[in-house]
Amino acid sequence: MNPTSTLGPTSMRAMKPRGSRNIGIAETKARAGSLLEQGAAFTRLEADALQAAGGQAPSDDKTRPALREEHVDVVVIGAGQNGLSVGYHLARRGLKFVILEARERVGDIWRSRWDSLRLFTPARFDGLIGMPFPSDRYSFPSKDDMADYLEAYAIKFSLPVRTGVKVDEVTRSGDRYIVTSGRTRYVASHVVAAASSYQKPKIPDFAALLDPSIRQLPSSAYRNPSQLNPGGVLLVGAGNSGAEIAMDLAPTHQVWLAGRHPGNIPVAYNGYFAMRLVLPVVFRLVFHRLLTVDTPMGRKAKPEQLSHGLPLIRVKPRDLDAAGVRRVSRVAGVQDGKPMLDDSQVLDVANIIWCTGFRAGLDWIRLPIFDETGRVKQYRGAVDGEPGLYVCGLHFQHSTSSTMIHGAARDAGYVADRIGERLRAAAR
Ligand SMILES: Cc1cc2nc3c(=O)[nH]c(=O)nc-3n(C[C@H](O)[C@H](O)[C@H](O)COP(=O)(O)OP(=O)(O)OC[C@H]3O[C@@H](n4cnc5c(N)ncnc54)[C@H](O)[C@@H]3O)c2cc1C
């Protein structure tokens, strides 16, 4: 195919990754401005172009016809670890693409997570393909280090990221996908939705029956203890986020952690033995090679992981006990405005944080790609019945590692390979 672009000065640049030197986090901070400006410049130029054409700046008003159309081989939606990894692989194959990112800066999703968050994977497992994480390999980077690393990655490989561009919907017209953002339409033969498995918190309906004086937050909105009412905190969901937030709150609040214990890695997490032997075996071998949709063991583990998440990686039950966190059974409903457990115990708490997981939140893809449980029907990211449409970063998309940083490269490479094959076949 021979795509034509109606874009002016912001059209795509050369996209081959440069074999340039690694960029450290400090340098990233200094250089991030240029990336930010890129996004802002695009928005400005777009507004200017629209005004010159007698239109108005982009808006969410979909009643007006789109004023601007751009044709491109591939649109990648989302510039997190998965979108950037897909970008890396597409660029290596010399393909024409653009990465659309809703937020103002690459990495903002990490910046918006709670203040004390450190990655549970050591730096040796936190680098994306082509650029090791610039920290001691046995240290645990902070969430802001991770954010800055992603920004540095986009800069190092000159990935064509457009920030501040939120995709409103994806539809199809014949053999082309139409990606709409405000009044701009991107027309592409291939779309990769790499917009995360963590977009929409799952909160049970009975939350609406809780007394309004109880402060309720999804884990994605939790930042630090100062956000909460004085008094007890109930964390609903005892997975990794619930356990980590419990440890964050334990010094200042009485904390209850409700839910089934998902199991845990049974060794001291940051000891010499764990760092050099156990974690590589767990992350590289078990999560990446053994537990995949292509192995019997993986197919057995998949439903369990989709409903209960991963075992506790860093926090151990004994850490929770030592911090005074009270571990209780599942929250089953509400009685007199208060949360009630499935053993009928009613808890008098001033705060509830829902750590009950997330949905991918891809309902803006207006195509029949979801099964009865709302999950995308796909194999290794290739969406069933929609040639040219891909997803990346879904829970157990291919393996346990599909939603982890060290798993991004393989899944993204597979998707880029399929896209490359299709484009080559179309050009013949
Ligand atoms: C609290 C927490 C801690 C974690 N810690 C670790 C860890 O230590 N190690 C590890 O390996 N994994 C960890 N993970 C899992 C995983 O690595 C992260 O969730 C990671 O952010 C997922 O990357 P992603 O690229 O799939 O999605 P995201 O990082 O969420 O990126 C998706 C991007 O898409 C953009 N987007 C979404 N919708 C649109 C739209 N409509 N239009 C345009 N852009 C859009 C978003 O703004 C976002 O920037 C953690 C997850 C959580 C929730």
Q: What can you tell me about this protein's structure?
A:
Helices cover 29% and strands 18% of the residues. It is of the alpha/beta class. It folds into two domains: 11-199 and 360-427, 3-Layer(bba) Sandwich (FAD/NAD(P)-binding domain); 201-264 and 311-358, FAD/NAD(P)-binding domain, CATH 3.50.50. Strands 1, 2, 3, 4, 5, 6 and 18 form a seven-stranded mixed beta sheet that branches. Strands 8-14-9-10-11 form a five-stranded parallel beta sheet, covered by helices on one side. α1 packs across α4 (143-156). The chain starts with 24 loop residues before the first helix and ends with a helix. Mean pLDDT is 86; it is low at 1-26 and 28-60. It binds flavin-adenine dinucleotide. Flavin-adenine dinucleotide binds at residues 77-83, 100-103, 109, 113, 117, 119-121, 166-167, 194-196, 198, 241, 364, 393, 403-405. Keywords: Oxidoreductase. This is NAD(P)/FAD-dependent oxidoreductase. It comes from Mesorhizobium qingshengii. InterPro entries: Auxin_biosynth/cation_transpt, FAD/NAD-bd_sf.
Key traits:
FAD/NAD(P)-binding domain; oxidoreductase; Auxin_biosynth/cation_transpt; NAD(P)/FAD-dependent oxidoreductase; 9 helices; 2 domains; 29% helix; disordered N terminus; 5-stranded parallel beta sheet; 428 residues; FAD/NAD-bd_sf; binds flavin-adenine dinucleotide; alpha/beta
